[in-house]
């Protein structure tokens, strides 16, 4: 065998030794903490347009429950002027989000933190794609903490007591899941 074949085999082995443990860590983490609710590219574009429509001068954007940071990274590319605070309670998810951010050269503030203990008073825009059962708790927190004029955008799940000023339907032909990737837009009064 030639030296090139040995080098290729070595690289494949190294990749396998690194990739397999990372995959297992992510799989176990998903089983323990539950799966992510990723926002699609179409949903991300609709989110960016909604921010530009309702808060074009926004400076701070909070991604509550950011998971592996995919949405935050996309938003930074689309709206580079935003200071993005991305919060998740999983150290594994935040580790991988920070790693992606460094590789891509994006300045995003990823934090392992409980979203219900995060200070949101400085937020201009808040985005979340959380389970329905967390929304009443988040609604109370936001009602107490946010300043007037803060834009809150939720994906699929919505608040019970707030009236959205707009519902942005990103997938109009999907009828099996009600509100699938519908963005609910609120402005704190």
What does this structure look like?
The chain has 189 residues and is of the alpha/beta class. It contains five helices and seven strands; from the N terminus they run ααβαβαββαβββ. The protein has helices at residues 3-33, 41-54, 70-78, 91-104, 135-145, and strands at residues 60-64, 83-88, 109-112, 125-128, 151-155, 166-169, 182-187. It has a seven-stranded mixed β-sheet with strand order 3-2-1-4-5-7-6, covered by helices on one side. β1, α3 (70-78) and β2 (83-88) form a beta-alpha-beta unit. It starts with a helix and ends with a strand. The relative contact order is 0.14. The model has no long low-confidence stretch (mean pLDDT 89).
- Give me the CATH superfamily of the largest domain: Vaccinia Virus protein VP39
Top-tier CATH class of the largest domain: Alpha Beta
Helix/strand structural class? alpha/beta
User: What's the main sheet like?
Assistant: 7 strands, mixed
The domain count comes to: 2
Low-confidence stretches: none
Helices, by number, come to 5
CA(first)-CA(last) distance = 72 Å
Estimate the helix proportion, in percent: 40-55%
Radius of gyration: 19 Å
DSSP summary, beta strand count: 7
CATH architecture of the largest domain: 3-Layer(aba) Sandwich
Mean pLDDT figure: 89
The fold-level CATH name of the largest domain is Rossmann fold
Beta-strand portion reads 15-25%
Shape: elongated
């Amino acid at each position: 065998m030639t030296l090139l074949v040995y080098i290729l085999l070595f690289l494949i082995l190294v990749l396998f030794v690194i990739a397999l443990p990372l995959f297992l860590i992510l799989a176990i983490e998903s089983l323990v903490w539950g799966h992510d609710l990723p926002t699609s590219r179409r949903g991300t574009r609709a989110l960016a347009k909604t921010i530009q429509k309702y808060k074009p001068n926004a400076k701070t954007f909070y991604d509550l429950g950011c998971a592996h940071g995919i949405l935050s990274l996309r938003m930074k590319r689309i709206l580079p002027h935003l200071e993005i605070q991305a919060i998740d309670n999983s150290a594994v998810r935040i580790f991988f989000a920070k790693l992606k951010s460094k590789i891509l050269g994006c300045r995003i503030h990823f934090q392992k933190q409980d979203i219900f203990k995060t200070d949101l008073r400085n937020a201009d825009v808040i985005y979340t794609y959380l389970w329905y059962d967390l929304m009443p708790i988040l609604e109370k927190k936001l009602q107490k903490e946010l300043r007037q004029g803060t834009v809150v955008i939720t994906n699929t799940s919505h608040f019970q007591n707030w009236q959205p000023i707009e519902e942005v339907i990103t997938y109009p032909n999907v009828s099996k899941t009600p509100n699938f990737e519908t963005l609910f837009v609120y402005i704190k009064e």
